[in-house]
Hints:
Blueprint: H1 2-16, H2 31-39, H3 41-50, H4 52-76, H5 99-105, H6 107-117
Amino acid sequence: MMPEVHESYSILRDKFGNDIKILFPTWMRTPFSIAAALRGMQNLLIDMITDTPFVHDLMRFLVDSEKKWLTERAKFLNENKIVVQMLSDNEVGAPMISPRLYEELILPYEIEIVEFLGV
């Protein structure tokens, strides 16, 4: 799908130039938020208790994917700095996630993304 997005973006930029700002999609979700969307919150919570190595692997994959996507987005847009307006993670506030699970399986990956972004 990205080649089509790139083409549409380029066509609009060529057509409108600087007359209007053409926005390009950005990544706004945290790794945990994406994991919850992929697995479903109930399955992810079970995984967090019964298969922590899988959750670590999933979170590593998502962090690496987010960093790569944001890096490639910046290159495509000829931006010197990766800019993200916000990282949304409504799921992490769910009262069913214990502090221990948050500190072990979510926080390190969120810190890594924030440090990558330089905020």
